[in-house]
């Protein structure tokens, strides 16, 4: 769900074939693993797994109904509620970069996780305070402006907390299995994925129903208790954790190499390149990065410079993910608004929670990941068809575009039916809506298409990031991949503001306070057009991309600087995002 799909995906496998000249050709290998359950470290790892379950349950319980809480409890209009939701999601995916940096350079993984969990707890505890109806206790209610201010503080603290945990808890769990082999690590991350889905499943079914149909106060008490339990579980085995001290961040080295390359490209700046670079011929054909190499008289080992250049080669591919994440983020924003105005009644006595439709995204992932990994991809291999990493990513982008097109068609038919009198009054969390008679299950295809797109674009994007990054910089690249999710959410928030500002001038606002009076379908068509343009750019970038060979990403060639003392993966297995971060954190 909600931009966190990549962390809810199981282990992805396979590398591109470095022997191919065509960047769209390659194949995947499949390897098996063994479980860690019989090791003596199992109780320690279980504490970390349950900590992650509680943290994800907390996060999704807060984010799933955020639009409804803003509109029904805080009196915020629909467009602003969407903007807040997308900005919150974006921040949650920016913070992990800084969480990884703090862990690597200052605090270490355990201290960063525990400190973040405490911040998380404070932010979550503010939500029941805001949502409690003080009139029932004959108390003076909190003024609405103060309530909104506390709400903003709560979301900021939660974003900081979840970001600090997100970037470290997976690697910290894998760290507890040092010396037990790759099989134990793979087993851990498969279970890590399973526990995340349990937490999200509880949130999208039980908790969102309580929030919508009973009260947000009780609905926010549950995540508060959950994150409190996560803090307790984290401390339960504190004296038995394997906890390494901070060793420094690869990000610092990238910044230094890049600054040297930029400033040293013909300027001979002693602050960047040292005295030995003075007097260098500015007309030299060597690039700034080449001049930074020690073999050319620069200040950095050749391997470090080449690794940094690899990061910049991958960035154009990553840039095309931003629009994809903008569409993905619609599940928690505009798709939610649309769902509020569809028929949610399963019977006269039971109303479905709007956010439950996210389960169809999860179900699609649970079905398609093993189907593709075990059936489709091997079958294509046997037929001689190479469905490569870049081709899979492009396929996912097309499916995401299809999702918003389906959403636009649903919106057109929903509004046409209401114009013809096919509507009903619907109450959600004390707020009444004019809703279409069409069942909310008409949204299933658009959610399922997003889930299918994740399998191709999100999962494969992680595999691409891992397989193309030097071993020493895999953690950095994973952090950059997470940042594209945040940028996508921020872009979605910006688009809402822009289209409302422009469409308001014509007196025909696309996203007014009441979506029934607006043109949500136009917004969906706009997203589809943006994705089509993005896909064209992606094709141009992908067709010019040359895969990095396994050997090049694993170790330096002779004459270059030495990489970090880490063993490259040789089994052909490409682990999940969290497992990659365990190998090399930012």
Outline:
globular
Q: Into which percentage range does the β-strand content fall?
A: under 5%
- Over the alpha carbons, how many angstroms does the gyration radius reach? 25 Å
Order of helices and strands: HHHHHHHHHHHHHHEEHHEEHHHHH
Largest sheet: 2 strands, antiparallel
Tell me the number of strands: 4
Low-confidence stretches: 9-33, 270-285, 552-586
Distance between the termini: 25 Å
**Count of helical regions:** 21
Into which percent range does the helicity of residues fall?
Answer: 55-70%
Question: Structural class of the helix and strand makeup?
Answer: mainly alpha
User: What is the average per-residue confidence, as pLDDT, rounded to a whole number?
Assistant: 78
- Largest sheet, order of strands side by side? 1-2
Give your account of this protein's structure.
Helix 1 runs antiparallel to helix 8 and helix 13 packs parallel to helix 16 (389-419). Strand 1 (345-347) and strand 2 form a beta hairpin. The strands form two sheets. This protein has a two-stranded antiparallel ribbon. The protein has a two-stranded antiparallel sheet with strand order 3-4. It has 586 residues and is mainly α. Residues 9-33, 270-285 and 552-586 have low confidence and may be disordered. The chain is built from 21 helices and four strands. The protein is globular. It starts with 41 loop residues before the first helix and ends with a helix. It has helices at 42-63, 66-73, 78-107, 109-131, 144-166, 169-175, 182-214, 216-236, 250-263, 270-273, 288-291, 302-319, 321-328, 334-340, 358-382, 389-419, 444-468, 474-505, 520-543, 550-554, 577-583, and strands spanning 345-347, 350-351, 423-428, 431-436.
């Amino acid at each position: 769900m909600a931009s966190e799909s990549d962390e809810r995906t199981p282990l992805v496998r396979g590398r591109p074939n470095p022997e191919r000249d065509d960047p769209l050709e390659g194949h995947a290998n499949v390897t098996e693993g063994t479980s860690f359950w019989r090791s003596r470290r199992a109780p320690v790892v279980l504490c970390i797994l349950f900590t992650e379950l509680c943290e994800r349950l907390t996060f999704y319980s807060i984010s799933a109904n955020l639009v409804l809480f803003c509109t029904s409890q805080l009196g915020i209009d629909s467009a602003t509620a969407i903007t807040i939701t997308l900005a919150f999601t974006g921040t949650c995916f920016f913070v992990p970069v800084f969480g990884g940096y703090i862990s690597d350079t200052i605090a270490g993984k355990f201290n960063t996780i525990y400190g973040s969990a405490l911040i998380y707890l404070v932010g979550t505890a503010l939500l029941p305070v805001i949502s409690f109806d003080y009139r029932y206790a004959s108390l003076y209610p909190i003024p609405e402006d103060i309530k909104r201010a506390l709400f903003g503080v709560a979301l900021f603290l939660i974003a900081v907390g979840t970001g600090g945990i997100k970037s470290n808890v997976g690697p910290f769990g894998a760290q507890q299995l040092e010396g037990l082999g790759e099989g134990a690590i793979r087993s851990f991350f498969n279970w890590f994925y399973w526990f995340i889905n349990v937490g999200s499943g509880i949130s999208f079914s039980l908790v969102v129903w309580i929030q919508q149909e009973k009260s947000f106060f009780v609905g926010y008490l549950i995540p508060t208790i959950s994150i409190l339990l996560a803090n307790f579980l984290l401390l339960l085995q504190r004296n038995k954790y394997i906890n390494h001290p901070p060793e420094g961040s690869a990000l610092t080295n990238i910044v230094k190499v890049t600054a040297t390359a930029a400033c040293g490209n013909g300027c001979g700046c002693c602050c960047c390149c040292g005295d030995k670079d003075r007097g260098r011929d500015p007309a030299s054909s060597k690039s700034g990065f080449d001049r930074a190499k020690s073999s050319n008289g620069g200040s950095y080992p050749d391997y470090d410079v080449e690794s940094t250049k690899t990061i910049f080669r991958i960035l154009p591919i990553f840039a095309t993910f931003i629009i994809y994440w903008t569409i993905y983020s619609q599940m928690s924003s505009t798709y939610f608004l649309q769902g509020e105005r569809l028929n949610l009644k399963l019977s006269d006595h039971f109303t479905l929670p709007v956010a439950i439709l996210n389960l169809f995204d999860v179900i699609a992932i649970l079905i398609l990941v093993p189907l593709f990994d075990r059936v489709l991809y091997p079958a294509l291999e046997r037929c001689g068809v190479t469905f490569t990493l870049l081709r899979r990513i492009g396929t996912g982008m097309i499916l995401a575009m299809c999702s918003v097109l389906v959403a636009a068609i649903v919106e057109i038919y929903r509004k046409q039916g209401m114009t013809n009198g096919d509507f009903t009054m619907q109450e959600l969390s004390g707020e009444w809506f004019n809703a279409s008679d069409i069942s909310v299950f008409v949204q299933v295809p658009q959610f399922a298409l997003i889930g299918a797109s994740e399998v191709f674009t999100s999962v494969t994007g992680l595999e691409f990031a891992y397989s193309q990054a030097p071993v020493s910089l895999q953690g950095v690249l994973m952090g950059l991949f997470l940042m594209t999710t945040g940028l996508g959410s921020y872009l979605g928030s910006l688009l809402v503001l822009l289209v409302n500002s422009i469409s308001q001038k014509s007196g025909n606002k696309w996203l007014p306070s009441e979506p029934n009076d607006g043109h949500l379908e136009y917004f969906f068509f706009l997203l589809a057009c943006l994705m089509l343009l993005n896909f064209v750019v992606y094709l141009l970038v992908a067709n010019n991309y040359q895969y990095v060979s396994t050997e090049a990403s694993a170790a330096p060639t002779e004459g270059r600087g030495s990489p970090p003392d880490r063993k490259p993966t040789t089994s052909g297995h490409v682990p999940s995002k969290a497992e990659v971060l365990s190998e090399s954190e930012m």
